[in-house]
């Protein structure tokens, strides 16, 4: 059973470091003037604090640019394109919890889609912003397994979606109801109404906007149901003939190029409506005079494999599952000129970035770093846990760098609350040279000798991965 089934219920050359740091300095200056908010340190004054528009799409792979051209024109052309954007757990609820908290899943506790109620809501970015005087709104999907009738904490206004595309169930400000229509368009209109309240409410605002697109069943709006998408004949990882160096679940995978093409087509068509919504948000912000001082972030909650290594979906350590589109724009903070940033960045960096822009010091530790700073990590921890004992793959963790990736699978599983059980024994390992093998076709650890492992630096990578998992 796939995680999707369980869940249902160019590179523009040369990002300028000097230009980025200048933008960071402008951002720091923008939040330098501070006022005192009880329990919060260094909160910027209301006059300088940016509005925040956070757009999180669902199962959105990195290579979907054709469908989000308006989004790219705005957030890439008048902001920053992150070419090495990742999620730290390629699964919806853990990833979204990392977005909210800036923490790895092993620290926030939402290790699977059933564990949403395990999240400490006092650690979320929405809690800090609301306490600092922000007007907060949620429009769309929240967390998997969240009870629809339960109001989402720390949001002043919401239209919480029970995942679906047409005539879905919603919790609107505490009232569960059916709203007819296409859900991406409903989310767009609810968000626009929230933004428009800035004409009479002078507080800075935070809007968390999260359409169901491009999650399966990837139902497009009627106007895009038959839109012709660009042809795609797969990556080298799709027709991979010999998968004997991969774990058993990959060796037994059966997805074909035709399967990958079909889901890609549906995903692109659903994202066209998201792109329309993003353009509408830009137009509204321009009309309100708030385009300059709104921090806008766009990210997918995880990627998706289009039959790479015979697999459809997410939850694997392979690049298409954890690489995501990632854009940011904040002209008033110096990040509005259309730059490319090739640092390794992730969903855990979103909450620290928002809080830094707002001048808020969180009361809990965070694993991520503000994108407004000059940090430059050399690798990222990516992790995933098997829920229950019946899955076809073991839990795993991975050291991901630009030039290499090391993976360990473990005899571990979680219960519905995210509690981990098992021996923790390593059951399989993979190592990929991402410079010469970007499609992860050759596992260098398959039949490797101890000398081979030493030459690849495996002992040091294994030690670092163990440390990262405990951090």
Automatic annotation (TrEMBL):
Residues 50-360 form the Sulfatase N-terminal domain. This is Sulfatase. It holds the Pfam family Sulfatase. The lineage of its organism: Bacteria, Bacillati, Actinomycetota, Actinomycetes, Streptosporangiales. Signal peptide: none annotated. Belongs to the sulfatase family. The keyword Hydrolase applies. It comes from Actinomadura graeca. Keywords: Glycoprotein, Hydrolase, Signal.
């Amino acid at each position: 059973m796939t995680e999707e089934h369980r869940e249902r219920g160019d590179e523009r050359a040369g990002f300028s470091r000097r230009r980025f740091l200048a933008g960071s300095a402008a951002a720091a200056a923008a939040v330098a003037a501070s006022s005192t908010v009880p329990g919060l340190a260094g909160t910027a004054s209301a006059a300088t604090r940016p509005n925040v528009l956070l757009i999180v799409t669902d199962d959105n792979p990195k290579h979907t640019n054709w469908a989000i051209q308006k989004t790219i024109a705005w957030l890439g052309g008048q902001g920053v394109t992150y070419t090495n954007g990742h999620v730290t757990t390629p699964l919806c609820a853990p990833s979204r919890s990392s977005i909210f908290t800036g923490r790895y899943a092993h620290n926030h506790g939402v290790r699977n889609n059933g564990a949403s109620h395990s999240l400490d809501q006092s650690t979320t970015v929405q809690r800090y912003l609301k306490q600092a005087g922000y007007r907060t709104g949620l429009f769309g999907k929240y967390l998997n397994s969240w009870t629809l009738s339960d109001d989402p904490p720390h949001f002043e206004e919401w239209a919480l979606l029970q995942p679906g595309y047409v005539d879905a169930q919603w919790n609107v400000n505490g009232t569960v109801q059916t709203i007819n229509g296409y859900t991406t368009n409903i989310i767009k209109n609810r968000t626009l109404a929230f933004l428009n309240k800035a004409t009479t409410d002078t507080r800075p605002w935070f809007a968390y906007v999260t359409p169901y697109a491009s999650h399966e069943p990837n139902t497009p709006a009627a106007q895009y149901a038959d839109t012709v998408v660009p042809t795609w004949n797969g990556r080298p990882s799709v027709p991979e003939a010999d998968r004997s160096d991969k774990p058993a679940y990959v060796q037994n995978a059966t997805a074909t190029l035709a399967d990958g093409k079909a889901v890609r087509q549906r995903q692109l068509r659903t994202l066209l409506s998201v792109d329309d919504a993003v353009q509408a948000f830009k137009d509204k912000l321009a009309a309100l005079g708030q385009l300059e001082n709104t921090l806008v972030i766009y990210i997918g909650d995880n990627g998706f494999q289009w039959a790479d290594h015979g697999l459809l979906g997410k939850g694997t350590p392979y690049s298409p599952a954890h690489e995501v589109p990632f854009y940011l724009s904040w002209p008033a903070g110096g990040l509005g000129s259309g730059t490319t940033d090739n640092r390794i960045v992730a969903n855990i960096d979103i909450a620290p970035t928002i809080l830094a822009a707002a001048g808020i010091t969180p009361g809990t530790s965070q694993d991520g770093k503000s994108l407004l700073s000059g940090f430059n990590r050399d690798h990222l921890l990516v992790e995933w846990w098997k829920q229950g004992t019946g899955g076809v793959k073991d839990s795993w963790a991975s050291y991901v760098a630009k030039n290499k990736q090391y993976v360990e699978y473990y005899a571990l599983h979680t219960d519905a609350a995210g509690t981990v059980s098992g021996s923790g024994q390593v059951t399989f390992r993979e190592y990929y040279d991402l410079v010469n093998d970007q499609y992860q076709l050759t596992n260098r650890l398959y039949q490797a000798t101890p000398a081979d492992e030493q030459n690849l630096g495996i002992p040091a990578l294994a030690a670092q991965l163990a440390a990262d998992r405990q951090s």
